[in-house]
Amino acid sequence: MILIEKFIDLSNLQQKLHNKPDWKQAQRPKKRVSNSILEADEWMRQDESIYHGLTDLKSRMGIMRLDDDQPRYKHLKHGAEKERRRKEKGHEEDESLRQVFKEKKKNVKSLAETKTKLSEIQTAKKKKQETLANLSEQAESVATKNKAVARQEVNHLEVVVEEFSQEIKRMSSLEPRLRPKETGLVSVAQPKKGKNKEGTSRPEDVQKGSKLST
């Protein structure tokens, strides 16, 4: 609409320029001098209006250049700048979201790897615990067997010692206990013939012979 109005003003000014004043008619004698003065003033006003119109047209033509610095078209520049900033902001937001998505994807992947490693560690730990439990059971079983064997050996030794003690007692009870009553007597194992008439060497006979001799 603004451009249409400018072209209309331009066409009106061009018509005013083509419509030159009729000087011949102005030179004709008029009935009154006042009318001639009024017409001259009118011409001068027309010239001034034409001059001002041309000046205004020039300024308006400068505006029609769509200069971004002109206030009238500043809203167009502002709108374009706003749109450009909106697109840049949208691009930045998209890029930021893309980066966030990449980071989250990376974190999810790292979390999955961590979970896998943790599961492997837990499985290995469980296997170690089972192995330790088996070893503990085996060690306990071996210890129990060793205790049983040691107890059996001790019992066997006790039985052997008891039997040996009984055998010693039995042998000691069967051993003869023959001891001489006097130092001068002859042993029973090696008897000697005396010079007495009886010719005996038993202790009883010797004692009897000694009594008789006294």
Automatic annotation (TrEMBL):
The lineage of its organism: Eukaryota, Viridiplantae, Streptophyta, Embryophyta, Tracheophyta. Residues 70-101, 172-214 are annotated as: Disordered. This is Stress response protein NST1-like. Residues 111-167 form a coiled coil. Keywords: Coiled coil. Residues 172-182, 196-208 have a biased composition (Basic and acidic residues).
